[in-house]
Each structure stands twice: as C-alpha cells, then as structure tokens.
Amino acid sequence: MPEQRVIPMFSYEDVGRAADWIASAFGFTETGRWSDDKGRVTHVNMELDSGMIMLGYPSPDYQAPRHHAEVCEQARAWRQTPYVVDGVHVGRRRRRALRTGAGGWCDDLV
C-alpha cells in the first residue's frame, strides 16, 4: 500500500504574491504554477524537504481573513485567537521569515 500523505491547501486573494513570499521567507520551492485566462495565478504547488503545500485562489468572491475582518465584527473576534505551531526548526524558519520582512506582509496572509 502506498504511503498516504496529507497535503494542506491554503487560500489567498493573491496566490502569486503569497507563493513568492513563502519561497523567500521559508525556503519552499515552487513546483507548479497555473493561471486563468486573465493572467491571475489560481494555483501553486510548493515543496520543502519532503513536504508539499498547495496555494489556491477559490473565487473572485473570496476574502482573506484579514480582509474579511475589515467588514465583519465576528471575523475580527476570530483573529484574536492565537495560533500554535508545533514542528521542527520553527525558530530557524521564523528567523528566516523575519529577515525577509515577514513582520509586515505575513499579517496580510492570515
């Protein structure tokens, strides 16, 4: 039986910009990029070590959590919940992200 893998997919309003930043900040390598007929990047596959993530643009109606919180009180409340990261090399990844300016742009992602 082949090894099972879970591949997380993250949604973004600007998939191309997010992929460029993730590659720079965390060292992921882009392994595929697709665009629609208007040139908007709609999907990107990325890998780091033996793991893979996918980035996607759900639809023109999609709003990232930060953007949605600008118009929705409940979404503003959701953003107050802290994230917990459990993994290897978190400190090294965080330092690399901060060197690339993650303190500003990563706030746009969540």
Give a count of the beta strands, DSSP E runs of length 2 or more.
Answer: 4
Strand order of the largest sheet: 1-4-3-2
Number of helices: 5
CATH fold label: Signal recognition particle alu RNA binding heterodimer, srp9/1
Query: Considering DSSP H and I runs of 4 or more, what fraction of the residues is helical?
Result: 25-40%
- What's the CATH architecture name? 2-Layer Sandwich
Biggest beta-sheet profile: 4 strands, mixed
Whole-number tally of structural domains: 1
Average per-residue pLDDT, rounded, comes to 80
CATH class: Alpha Beta
Question: Strand-and-helix sequence, N→C?
Answer: EHEEEHHHH
- Globular, elongated, flat, extended or rod-shaped: what is the shape? globular
Low-confidence runs of at least 5 consecutive residues: 104-110
The first-to-last residue Cα distance is 36 Å
Content-based structural category: alpha+beta
Q: What is the radius of gyration computed over CA atoms, rounded to a whole number of angstroms?
A: 15 Å
Portion in beta strands: 15-25%
